[in-house]
Design brief:
The structure is a homodimer. Chain A is built from 9 helices and 15 strands. By secondary structure, chain A is of the alpha/beta class. Chain A has 3 domains: about 1-80 and about 175-180, D-Maltodextrin-Binding Protein, domain 2 (3-Layer(aba) Sandwich), CATH 3.40.190; about 85-165, Periplasmic binding protein-like II (D-Maltodextrin-Binding Protein, domain 2, 3-Layer(aba) Sandwich); about 195-275, ACT domain (Alpha-Beta Plaits, 2-Layer Sandwich), CATH 3.30.70. In chain A, the strands form 2 sheets. In chain A, strands 1, 2, 3, 4, 5, 11, 12, 13, 14 and 15 form a 10-stranded mixed β-sheet that branches. A 5-stranded mixed β-sheet of chain A has the order 8-7-9-6-10. The first copy, chain A, is elongated, with a radius of gyration of 21 Å.
Chain lengths: ~280, ~280
């Protein structure tokens, strides 16, 4: 099995792939769209990309791509706990408190904002494309007094020393990754529960449509675990909604509700029914 | 009147301020939080910050700040059409097609993605803090064959020549800005309509709460023009909702609905009733 993932090696996406597909041949892609195009064009068997972070919210690029493009269904969701560590080149361990510049992904820097403000008020901060890319850069430049914020796998892969563990500000940080594939996937790990994702566009000329949609779910006791709006790119105030259901799309009551919602004039895109897996 | 705005001069926020408050003393702030702190601490009479772009979606920093901090009420909303132009230093006009690097804000670069891909495939692209900052940089470096993507006001202020107008990919792009102030503001311009914004946190232990909230509005024919979710930063799946109503919070039916929604166990934060103004 060839698995495209949002790279480089040792990103959190890479951790997601390795935890659920330990035997897959992992192929790193530079961007999320390239990753999704690879599975669409059947260059790989599956693609793994980030969908939502508990602190920063949805990854808009992934959500918009799922809405606007025809992609294979979602076959699995992987939840990875996000632990950020402070790491330097082994030659600079003794002097780590004198770090002059700290590099990482913009989200990781945001997640460690309080730590940086408290401990490294006078150090410069620079964004890089990913936490793994930052770790790689620091490993290649021992002459610079720089540090990276990244995960444990990146420290191991690039031979950096973690001098301060778990420096993120909020303890409950997780990221959800989705796995897209045309064919069913064999997964050894035990799932935590089943769910589905759909995207709904409301008719523009009717007030109260969202309430009607939620009514169609509510009286059938179909539980929603997520409801999120995204702009349609057609003007202010035009949205589509991404909705997660704690049910399979094959359940009879779910099928009836979607049929009715379509009859109300809504567009419904079904992204798939799948299980959640925990990377821990 | 002193108006804090997300600067530097000639940003789209600056255009919003000048169109509705032509006589205000404008004070540029480097970041959105600094702008909001200034009005909270009464260093200025009002603060103007971006809230939502029609293509890129909400400005998460503003939304989260409104939720987590106690700020003065929203007193007005200003909608600015977003037109991006391609501009170079006057010395480089003849050779503008040989531009080697293009600089702008990340959103502006995203909004002109197709144009850049079509016309400047081989030029480098670099992000700067704002469109105005990019224009300023290009104006100070005539020796570089660089171009900026920015608005007309920035071209005038920094003495750049617009060589290609309206290069944005989608024609309907607008940004909403909000004005926060403790005191009522005198506005000469005619408003387009009145609205209100609230933020609702659902009780975590009850399914179907969002449906109940929308029911409370729906049977009273209270129209929602926006409903958006944001993560609460307490774990995956915990959200608050930002809701715009096409009504004043003083209307009797609105007051009843909010009272009932609170009785259901929801937390409701009222951000204010205000009018929309068009910058055109």
């Amino acid at each position: 099995m060839r698995a495209a993932f949002f790279g480089p090696e040792a990103t959190f996406t890479d951790i997601a792939v390795q935890s659920v597909f330990p035997d897959a041949r992992r192929i790193a892609y530079r961007t999320i769209p390239e990753c999704l195009e690879a599975v669409k064009e059947k260059q790989v068997d599956m693609a793994v990309v980030p969908l939502e972070n508990a602190l920063e919210g949805s990854v808009n690029l992934t959500v918009d791509y799922l809405y606007h493009e025809d992609l294979p269904p979602i076959r699995a969701e992987i939840v990875v706990p996000i632990e950020q560590h402070f790491m330097v080149h082994p030659e600079n361990v003794a002097e780590w408190r004198k770090t002059e510049k700290i590099v990482s992904h913009s989200h990781a820097l945001a997640q460690c904002h309080k730590f940086l403000h408290r401990e490294f008020k006078h150090a410069a901060v620079e964004q890089m494309g990913s936490t793994a890319a930052a770790a790689k850069y620091v490993s290649e430049h021992p002459e610079l007094k720089w540090a990276a914020i990244a995960n444990e796998m990146a420290a191991e892969l690039y031979g950096l020393e973690i001098v301060k563990r778990s420096i993120h500000d909020y303890p409950f940080n997780h990221t959800r990754f989705i796995v897209l594939a045309y064919n069913k996937l064999e997964i050894q790990k035990a799932p935590s529960f089943q769910k589905s994702t759909i995207m709904i566009t409301l008719p523009t000329d009717k007030a109260g449509s969202l309430h009607q949609v939620l009514s169609a779910f509510a009286w059938r006791e179909i539980n929603l675990s997520k409801l999120e709006s995204r702009p349609l790119k057609t003007g202010l105030g035009n949205y589509f909604f991404m909705i997660d259901l704690n049910h399979s799309l094959d359940e009879k009551l779910v099928r009836f509700s979607l049929e009715e919602i379509r009859a109300l004039g809504c567009t419904v895109k079904e992204l798939g029914s799948y299980c959640r897996y925990m990377a821990e």
